[in-house]
Amino acid sequence: MTIWHFKGELLHRDGVSAVYRFFPDHVMAPDVSGTFRVNLTFFQSEIVEPANAAARGLVSTDEYCVSALVHKIRKAPSTSEGPPEQVFFVA
Q1: How many CB atoms lie within 10 A of CB 81?
Q2: Cβ atoms of residues 48 and 66 within 8 Å
Q3: Which of 23, 36, 79, 83 could covalently link to 7 via disulfide, CB atoms 3.0 to 4.6 Å apart?
């Protein structure tokens, strides 16, 4: 059985987009991270700096991790303060 522990930390928000640092496995490999940008209107994302999770021996890929975190950002309660500071995906 595989368990994923994805984590995203908000770095900054710029208008309708936000940049997050993502961790493809923040439990077993806390030093492996990358960054992605997400459009907060359409929830389209792009990886700015890859973590290269699969190449480092992690089960997840960067794309799968970012997709799961964007889903969590999209489902987070809307506040006037903007997107969530941290998001987690455990499966």
Answers
A1: 8
A2: no
A3: 23
**CA dist., res. 36 & res. 50, Å (int):** 8
Distance CA 52, CA 34 (A): 8
pLDDT (tens digit per residue) in 62-72: 999 999 999 99
Structure-token pair, residue 73: 């950002």
DSSP 85: S
| Residues sharing a CB contact under 8 Å with residue 28, sequence separation 6 or more, in sequence order | 5, 58
Nearest-CA neighbor of 83 among 35, 47, 37?
Answer: 37
Render the burial of 65-78: b for 16+ CB within 10 Å, e for the rest: bbebbbeebeeeee
Read off the pLDDT of residues 24-66 as tens digits, 9 standing for 90 and up: 988 888 899 999 999 999 999 999 999 998 888 877 889 999 9
